[in-house]
Amino acid sequence: MKRDQPFRDRVDAGRRLGALLSGYENASDTIVLGLPRGGVPVAHALASRLGLPLDVLIVRKLGVPGYPEVAFGAIASGGIEVLNADVIQSAHIDELAIERVRLEQSQELGRRELVYRGNRPPLDVTGSAVIVVDDGTATGATMRAAVEALRVAEPNRIIVAVGLAPPDVLRKLAKLADEVVAVLIPRNFMAVGAWFEDFAQTTDDEVIALLTS
Fold first, then answer.
1. Model's pTM, two decimal places?
2. Residue-wise pLDDT tens digits, 75-121
3. In whole angstroms, what is the distance from residue 18 CA to residue 46 CA?
4. Domains, the chain, ordered by start
């Protein structure tokens, strides 16, 4: 198979990522976390190939009021929170505004936790190697938030694994994570879905089924 061959679907992306991460096969101290929704089928295929436990990492960016695309922090599964003091200061965000955004995003995170995980507690990542998986990333924003939030939980090692990403995004992620792996690194990136023959939207029901299979 050619390295630059497009993916059939997200399962194909996960299997090909698994081949690149074969050194982690059956590792007792390694956990796979999928970013919902599209990252979960990829993570499931990767975890199945490598014989590793699978969980979901739900990340919600905390957006600057009035400019939600600019994040001043992030929250994630397991009560993880990270704040960017520089952005908070430069955007003049007061504590009341921070709490308002935190509450709004915490409610949405809690809703998704309940939908995807039910009453199951998240896997404990402290001291473990964690492979964080997504189908692809155009800007790296969500994955950056995931890695920064995950650091708070003190894993031993963070490995970013994506189906594809532009070269500049991977370079930026490499400064945050201990290891970064992508199957495809197209210079003319276009969109993530352009590199999949089947890029149908992943549903909540599919995520739930994969996490409980």
1. 0.86
2. 887 788 888 888 899 999 999 999 999 999 999 899 888 999 888 88
3. 5
4. 10-58+123-212 (3.40.50.2020), 60-117 (3.30.1310)
